[in-house]
Write a structure and sequence with these properties.
Layout lengths: L3 H5 L2 H13 L1 H16 L7 E6 L2 H6 L6 E2 L4 H5 L12 H7 L8 E5 L5 H6 L10 E5 L2 H11 L7 E4 L10 E5 L9 H6 L7 E7 L1 E2 L4 E6 L3 E9 H10 L2 E9 L17 E8 L9
Helix pairs in contact: 2-3
Length: 284
Amino acid sequence: MMTLKGILLSPSCKSFVDTLERRMPLVRRWHRFEFEQHFARMSKWERLFRGVYESFDEAIKNIPEGRKVGYDNDESATFLGHGGHISPCDYPVLFWLRPLLREGGRVFDFGGYLGISFYSYAKYMAYPETLTWQICDLPAVVRAGVELASHEESHGLSFTTEFAEAAGADVVIASGSLQFVPVPLAELLSTLPQKPEHLLINKTPLYEGPQFVTLNSMGPAISPYWIFNRSHFLQSLEKVGYEVVDSWQNPDLSCYIPYRPDRWVPAYTGAYLKLSGPRRKKVG
């Protein structure tokens, strides 16, 4: 049975509210004012979106005064925790990841936070004894992750702030992180002297419309947040040598921006891509 929250967040309810507001301008103005006030307030956990912007810089200029920006602060670095039950959209990642793990191999978890995937996936698979799982994240997150790892079962886990260390990794995982990174993944991969052989991307907002940046209020802070054009995103990875092996939808994740129904992302996307050419970057 659908909960009240589920009903309020459903496409049909959102469509009804949009129609009502178009017919009643006063209601629209009041609703927008209340939403702006709510968006600007700090809360323990929110997943709200606001605005359509051309760039991260433009989006940052529109963050309400006094709010923290992004994940590079102590509050944002720890509020999500480090484990728990996986969601249905994690199962395709587990399916493709399991056979890619090998003794002496290396996973590069881009935007892996405190180790959410590392700790959660360990409940469903045994990691090879000599596997290295390296998380790349912002300095505040890395500090908190290192501290947490010292108290948890974290054999093989390490942290870095440098994407350059992805060079030569067997697998790059990016689960719910690429939308928070200013530089597109394909551009980052193109700088590596040795590209990772496998990419596992999940919980990423891809849709058929134009690419843009919105603002995401995630509780303790507000962050710029990419919404990618599906074709452009996948083609950019193909241009740097990757081919799509599989893709899937994440129907439990969506992005609704009030007053911009044309930019609605009804379901996020996951994909497994494999390097089709030489792993070494050509020189000259």
